[in-house]
Amino acid sequence: MKNKGLKKTKFPGIYLDKSLDEKYKGKVIFQEKLDEANRTLKRVGVPNPETVKKYSETHSKK
Amino acid sequence: MKYDRYDFIVGDSFMFYEFESDGPKGKVTKLIHYTEMELKGFYNLGFGDKDHKSGEIDDTIITDNGDSQKILATVAYTVYSFTDKYPNSWIYAKGSTKARTRLYRMGISNNLDFIVQDFEIHGLKNDSWFKFERNVDYEAFLIKKKIQ
Asked: Is B30 in the A-facing interface, judged by CB distances under 8 Å?
C-alpha cells in the first residue's frame, strides 16, 4: 500500500486519501448485499439491546 | 486483537477503505464499503476484491492468498475507525457465502473477549436476533459501539 504523503489518522496504520471518496462517490458497490440486508431488517426487525438474549438461553440442549 | 493486519487508506467520508493483500498470489486490492441502509443509522458492510483491469469489485471471488486471518483482522480494524467517526451507527455484516459468514463468526469468536469491551455484537438465527456467543451458527451480524 502506498502511503507516502498521505495524512495519518488517529489510528495507527490508517491513512487518509481524499481520492478514495472521489473514485467511488455516488456508487453503491455491493448493491445486491445491500438490498438483501434491507430486506432482512424489514422482515426481522432490529435487536433490543435491553432484552436480547443468548441463543443458548432460549434453546437449551436436551 | 490477536492477529497482524494490513495498513489501509480511508476516504474523507470514512465509508470507503482500501488495502492490499500480499501473498503467494501476489498483491490484491481489497475494498470495504459501509453503505447507508434504509433504516437510519444502519450501515451494510460490503467487502470485495478489486479487479485491476476492469476496476470492478467482486465480493464472491476466492483469492486464496494465504492471509485470511490478517484480512479479517484488517476488516475488523475498519470497524473501529468507522464507529469512531459514526459512534451511534449499527453495522450489518454478512458474508457473500455461508463459508464467509462462518469466517466472520470465527473471527469474532477468536477475539470475542477483546471485542466485547467496546462493542455489542448480535447474531441472526432463524429470523431472530441473539446476543453473540461462541459455537452458534449465525446467518448475519449486527455490531454497535458501546457508549462509554
From this structure: no
Write down the domain spans for chain B.
Answer: 9-145
What is the structure's pLDDT at A61?
A: 60
Q: Looking at the partner chain, which of B8, B42, B133 has a beta carbon nearest the beta carbon of A55?
A: B133
Chain A partners of B140 at a C-beta cutoff of 8 Å? 37, 40
Q: What is the 3-state secondary structure (H, E, C) of chain A?
A: CCCCCCEECCCCCEEECHHHHHHHCCCCCCHHHHHHHHHHHHHHCCCCCCCCCEHHHHCCCC
Q: Lowest-confidence range among B23-27, B44-48, B63-67, B82-86?
A: B63-67
**Nearest residue to B136 via CA among A40, A57, A47:** A57
Cell numbers linked to B40: 437510519
What confidence score (pLDDT) does residue A12 get? 85
- Is this prediction's ipTM beyond 0.90? no
E strands along A1-62, which residues? 7-8, 14-16
Q: What is the pTM of this model?
A: 0.91
d(CA B124, CA A40) in angstroms, rounded, equals: 10
Q: How far apart are alpha carbons B78 and B10 in whole angstroms?
A: 9
Task: Return d(Cα B139, Cα B43) in angstroms, integer.
Answer: 17
Residue of A nearest to B43 (CA): A34
Is the pLDDT confidence value at A7 over 80?
yes
- Average pLDDT value for chain B: 90
